[in-house]
Amino acid sequence: MSDPRIVSLLPSATEIVAALGFADRLVGRSHECDYPRAVGRLPVCTAARLDAGLTSAGIDRQVKERLRDALSIYAVDDARLRRLAPTHIVTQTQCEVCAVALAQVEQAVAGVTGLETRLVSLEAAALDGIWADIRTTAAALDAADRGEALVAALRRRMAAVTDVTAGVVATPTVACIEWIDPLMAAGNWLPELVAMAGGVNLFGTAGAHSPWLDWEALAAADPDIVIVMPCGFDIARTRAEMPALTGSAVWSRLRAARAGRVYLTDGSRYFNRPGPRIADSLEILAEILHPDLLTFGHYGTGWQPL
Questions:
Q1: pLDDT: is 250 or 55 the higher one?
Q2: Cα–Cα distance for residue pair 249/245, rounded to 1 Å
Q3: I need a labelling partner for 67 at 20 to 30 A (CA). Which of 74, 88, 209, 286 fits?
Q4: How far apart are CA 289 and CA 220, in angstroms?
Q5: Model confidence over 31-48: pLDDT tens digits?
Q6: What whole-number distance in Å separates Cα of residue 60 and Cα of residue 48?
Q7: What is the pTM of this model?
Q8: Mind listing the domains of the chain with CATH numbers?
Q9: What stretches of 141-221 show up as alpha helix (H) in DSSP?
Q10: Average model confidence (pLDDT) for the chain?
Q11: Would you say residue 226 has pLDDT above 50?
């Protein structure tokens, strides 16, 4: 298709579309799409039905209440979609907490009469799924060759990390925290990234949803390193939420806390987005786990010590 009109309802999808060379064909975005910076000028096609200003615990309660009542936590602007007349809408099926559900988009599109729109649904749950999503998006835009080139470039970047970490003898144990209150470990692609960065992931299974984490289980595992990467939070927001962790009676018992090996990351921009910046995410992990071996310049913006 020579002149696609693309609406992306997922931040990682927006980044994939841009990395494939179609940034100028984006005509609409979700309220969470913020990269590349130029997408900020695009019309917003979704809105949150949650109060993002609440604490971690408060946000968790809102999400559970809405999902329990079968209410979506996001809304689609049907009228705006109609005006934008997209040829493609990119969304996801992997996690209803992360973006607008596919059923909502299908309903919105069905209400737009006379509009022939292709829905591109992404569903990465592991690293291979991210490569598949890039290829799926590229194929939908008649640019399969660009998809293959992008995947190859990202894999080369990541191989440059694993070429170094593969020879590491001392591999630290790592607990990746994806939500602060209540505690949740990181699943999906994170266990793979930790292993590639030269660490031993303690919680979460590759390809599976992020699991809830018990404080006593965290204490029993006693990780060498704790990396905090809450879904949707930047470093400043994560730091503001940290008293919910550091105030626990268990916290002071953790080896990582005593040794000063607790790190805060920008989960929103990196670890929670299954898109091109997955390579940056691996580099950040490698810098944290093996600072004597690898440096990529992500300190300060991508990660900071507690």
A1: 250
A2: 9
A3: 88
A4: 21
A5: 999 999 999 999 999 887
A6: 14
A7: 0.89
A8: 6-123 (3.40.50.1980), 165-305 (3.40.50.1980)
A9: 144-165, 190-196, 215-221
A10: 88
A11: yes
